[in-house]
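Risk register update: the risk of archive-format incompatibility is retired. Evidence:
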Amino acid sequence: MKAMRQLTAVCVAGAVLSAGTACAWAQATPAPTAHRIELTDRDAGRALTVRPGDDVEVRLTGVRDRGTAFVWSAPASEDPAVLRRSALGQTPTGGVTARFTAGDRGGTALTARRSCRAAPGSRCPHVVATWRVTVTVR
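Archived output:
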């Protein structure tokens, strides 16, 4: 009987130590970290999936040449609740950079337009290029 009590005490102590170790391990496991995804002119038409908290950085290149400049509009999210723009910048050559943070789960698109701007005395083609990337937040 005494041996049975001792065995029970050892088993209970072992279970408590195991549970404590499991709890300590669970507390020490870091949460998933946010990722940064970079998109450029070449990613037009791409579809991608990100997680809530991830950053999507857009870098579109403008061109300035002989009196004309091909400049980008500010990239925009069709659903700011899914992808919220957190930063925006423009380059002297007509390029643009923007950062978006993934929020609510769902789908949206990032879009921007490139158009020509002519200096006085120069001419531009009447062409507007659209850049679009479909993003799903899961």
